[in-house]
Amino acid sequence: MLLHHHSSILQRLMLALRRFKYQYHYQCYCSCTNPSQAPVAFTAKTVCDESLLFRYLTKGWHHEARNLLLQSFSAGDLHARVVRWTSLLTNYTRKGHVFQARMLFDVMPHRNIVTCNAMLSGYLQSGMLDEARWFFESMPERNVVSWTAMLGGYADAGRVEDARRVFDVMPEKNVVSWNAMVGGLVRNGDLEGARMVFEQTPCRNVVSWNVMIAGYAENGGMDEARALFDQMEFRNVITWTSMISGYCRAGNVEAAYGLFGTMPEKNVVSWTAMIGGFAWNGFYEEALLLFLQMSLSDSKPNGETFISLAYACAGLSFPYLGRQLHAQLIVNGWKLDDYDGRLRRSLVRMYSVFGLMDYASNMLEGDLNNFDDQSLNSMINGYVQAGQLEKAQELFDTVPIRNKIAWTCMISGYLSAGQVFKACDLFDSMPDRDYIAWTSMISGYVQNELIAEAISLFGEMMAHGFSPLNGTFAVLFGAMGSVAYLDQGRQLHGMQVKTIYEYDLILENSLVSMYAKCGEIDDSYRIFSNMAYRDKISWNSMIMGLSDHGRASEALTVYETMLEFGLYPDTVTFLGVLTACAHAGLVDKGWELFNSMVNSYGLQPGFDHYISIINLLGRAGKVKDAEEFVLRLPVEPNHAIWGALVGVCGLSKTDADVASRATKRLLELDPLNAPGHVTLCNIYAANDRHIEVTSLRKEMRIKGVRKAPGCSWILVKGRVHVFSSGDRLEPHVEDILLQI
User: Fold this and answer.
1) 283, 291, 298, 412: which is deepest, by most CB within 10 A?
2) What is the dihedral of CA 255, 258, 264, 266, to 10 degrees?
3) Which residues pair with 193 in a beta bridge?
4) Is the pLDDT confidence value at 671 over 90?
């Protein structure tokens, strides 16, 4: 399900959004809203008496409340009156008026077991477990509903052993009791115990199976859930939806969609579960396409559906569709249903991802009370990604409470912008640093080429009692490779082996790359060979490492092995094998690979690939062929292309005409290019064209062209010492040697 025609899909999606006359219904928790839960209808006089009754109960006037009950509810037989009083009591507890409900219970002239169960449920629903237990023990009569309610109350409070004791001594159990025990164990994470009770249930219904399947699905036990699912004789929509949600939660979207396609019936929850499963697993296009299918069904989307759609729009960077989605929500009264703020937070995140920060800010209406943690993080990250660090800092300073993510996001933003001092100030001021904050700061130092500072901060992190994350080591391994600090890299590797035991692909990839860049290609290949799993980055790192070390045949062997394993090469892979061919002078093989890249795999070559072909031809002495290749390129050559051609001319120093033409084009694009001037000077000198040499050097002086001297560096006791060509630093050298 790939999205090939974005414009067509966008139009269809917007039409689908307009088709929905989406109306949210705000469910007030009063009796008049839900007819099925409303008490028996009373006369106008009775309603007035209810208000008076509530006042009497609140003040604790037992006698007056009892008399009012007898006067106002005198109509009907005794059973009808008890039903009315019980309905009134239930209404009180539902609204949280537990004290008044108990007062009403106490002044009732008559009660029955249903009344007692209603009071017991009121205590349990309000979290008043001790009062519920005392009431339960004082009940003159208890039935299976009473016992089951008490069992569920204990389970909801996490008191599983108390729930088990109630379950074990129950004089009578029905399927609801068994299901309550299974569900209570599931909610408290005891899947093994829940399965034992499930197996002992004498007469299981579809709810029994659904509770157990949902328990496994929510805790990642999809094999066990699927086994139960396959055993079920009758399944309902809840069964199917639990399985779909479980597979999506485990990241197995393909299995979820396979079940979704075979469902005998679907409701809005099923559609939303699958749409959300696509969106949360990064299949944004598929989520939008499935919403199109939903629009053709009888199911209407709910708030959860639109949360997933906002996430998908953000993932695809479809701002126009995102605004259309928001417009439909406003028109159809979305605020009425967004009681928990999740829909608003999803829109804040969506607009922040788009970089439409004014829209995101308007969602929160400028009220600091609306800035929950998630919205704050989205807004700050949006400002940072949009390069508006000042606004991000202003928001960060304005909100009264800032979480760790907000601090870390601000620090990373300043580091990405190269403002290291501001990042350091924030990091030093951070009240509660975690592993991620330390790693972000270390990564920022590396990003800004402050390797010694990164290593020093790593030591400080360890001194503060924070064990490094996999990502911390991966960042440092990359840094060690970039500056070829082999000894430091080996020390970190030894520390990593002692600290981290679980397998981590990214970590091993960074080790392969580090050892290759530090010149230890055999160590790099040993790690690569022992990897339990390799991805494309692993193969590319090894191919590039072998190529850089001139081991062309081994690089090509690894490439062939990669193909045998069924992995398709990408542009990085071809850059590695083309470089290997250039180093070994394998012109025919290089051309074969270049043509394969374009014709067999449909990959578009970049400037680096063109430069590799230039080097391939130039190193083989085919400089004129290299020039013809450049002139036939489908893109306009840039200064790097012409510079590469000038460079291969300097290898033989015989193709002065080609060098002259290439240098002319190079200097048109980069007039102060020192290597180009120097290479052409050397070629003229090698061909005894001294007049041109003199003229070119005079031109260099007039332009102020200077060749940057080469340099080397060494790390000693955490300090980097740099030596440029021509330095006269013998005393410093002696001091450094004494430290080694």
Assistant:
1) 291
2) 70
3) none
4) no
Of residues 163, 154, 66, the one with CA closest to residue 110: 66
Q: Rounded to an integer, what distance in angstroms lies between the CA atom of residue 388 and that of residue 394?
A: 10
Locate the domains of the chain by residue range: 709-740
Distance (Å, rounded) from C-alpha 606 to C-alpha 412?
30
On whether the CB atoms of residues 460 and 428 are closer than 8 A, the answer is no
0.85 exceeded by pTM: no
pLDDT tier, 686 (very low <50, low <70, confident <90, very high otherwise):
low
pLDDT at 209 over 90: yes
Model confidence over 560-579: pLDDT tens digits?
999 999 999 999 999 999 99
Q: What is the 3-state secondary structure (H, E, C) of 641-686?
A: HHHHHHHHHHHHCCCHHHHHHHHHHHHHHCCCCHHHHHHHHHHHHH
Q: Who has greater pLDDT, 18 or 62?
A: 62
By CB neighbour count within 10 A (0-12 exposed, 13-18 middle, 19+ buried), where does 670 fall? middle
pLDDT at 43 over 80: no
Answer whether 375's CB lies under 8 Å from 362's CB.
no
Res. 105: pLDDT tops 50: yes
464-483 in b/e burial notation, b at 16+ Cβ within 10 A? Answer: eebebbbbbbbbbbbbbbeb
Question: In 3D, which of 562, 632, 638, 636 has the Cα closest to residue 593?
Answer: 562
> Average per-residue pLDDT in the chain?
82
Q: Any idea of the CA torsion for 348, 351, 354, 358, to the nearest 10 degrees?
A: -120
For the beta carbon of residue 46, count every other beta carbon within 10 angstroms: 16
DSSP 8-state symbol, 442:
H
Read off the tokens for 407.
């601090």
2: Cβ–Cβ under 8 A, 6 or more apart, which residues? Answer: 285
- pLDDT band, very low/low/confident/very high, at 248 (cuts 50, 70, 90): very high
CB count in 10 Å sphere of residue 551? 18
Q: How many CB atoms lie within 10 A of CB 113?
A: 14
The string of pLDDT tens digits covering residues 576-606 is: 999 999 988 899 999 999 999 999 998 999 9
Q: Which two tokens stand for residue 199?
A: 């197996």
